[in-house]
Amino acid sequence: MKFISLNTAAELICFLAALIFLYRDKSAAWRLFILYMLIVVSTETTAILTRRIIPNQHLYNAFLLAECGFVSYFLYNMFRPFGYTKKWLFAWWGIFAVVYLGELYYFRGGEYPHFVAFTVNIMSVAFVLGCLWFYYVKLVDEQYEPLMTSAQFWWVSGALFFYFGSTACNVFFDYLAEYDHASYYSSTRYVIYNILNIILYSLWTYSIVCRYRQRKLSRS
Questions:
Q1: Where are the transmembrane segments (predicted)?
Q2: Which of 107, 130, 169, 210 has minimal CB crowding within 10 Å?
Q3: Sorting pLDDT into bands at 50, 70 and 90, what band is 25?
């Protein structure tokens, strides 16, 4: 049973960075990052411990609620300075809830636990569109901000890489399934998801450091 991999190490480093650099942040969204990363690490640890005993579909179905809630709320907080109201956030949460509960109801009572893959695809597409729209909003914004040190830019970039890549992976699932004998004794799809995870949490870790530096500069 292998607990530490590049994937889990990237998640743990991101959690520790959030815990160290964000616990005094004035933004509720950034402080919530700490709790979310704790949930991520706990979910992965639980999945590793139980995957040979029970199916983990229910675990990841439950985690999806935290993922959608956090990423949606974080994106909303980045759009809020540009005049976007909470109605957009609540409308999206309503759509997500309908799709999520509808898929669970449709596949209820099956022989095997069902993972809400369709809901994941809808969520991923929504987040990709949200990230692209944020790029557009920043592009037309008259206020200059250096991108190399922009915490928001790197957070959105990490999310865009992950959700665009995972959506493409799901779309071409049947094609990738033909190459389950990939090197490193893992399926091609599994390797791709690990790479996407590493990119996501690496960029999020960098965004946390950028956020901390911004706070330090604002106080000086």
A1: 6-23, 30-53, 59-76, 88-107, 113-137, 153-173, 193-212
A2: 107
A3: very high
Contact status, residue 78 vs residue 152, Cβ threshold 8 Å? yes
How far the first Cα of the chain sits from its last, in Å, is 48
Q: Specify the 3-state DSSP secondary structure of 116.
A: coil
Q: Dig out the tokens for 118 from the structure.
A: 């369709």
- What's at 90, amino acid-wise? F
27-53 average pLDDT score: 94
To the nearest 10°, report the CA torsion of 184, 63, 197, 1: -30
Q: Is 146 exposed, middle or buried (0-12, 13-18, 19+ CB in 10 A)?
A: exposed
Please, what's the b/e burial string for 40-58 (b: 16 or more CB within 10 A of its CB; e: otherwise)? bbebbeeebeeeeeeebee
Is 24 in a helix, a strand, or coil?
Answer: coil
Give which of 158, 160, 159, 146 is closest to 214, Cα–Cα. Answer: 146
Which of 43, 41, 63 is closest to 51 using CA atoms? 43
Here the tokens at position 2 are: 């292998």
Query: Rounded distance, CA 89 to CA 28, Å?
Result: 16
Q: CB of 59 within 8 A of CB of 50?
A: yes
Residues 138-168: tens digit of each pLDDT: 999 888 888 999 999 999 999 999 999 999 8
* Amino acid at residue number 155: W
Contact (Cβ atoms closer than 8 angstroms) between residue 197 and residue 11? yes
**Residue of 162, 156, 163 lying closest to 210 (CA atoms):** 156
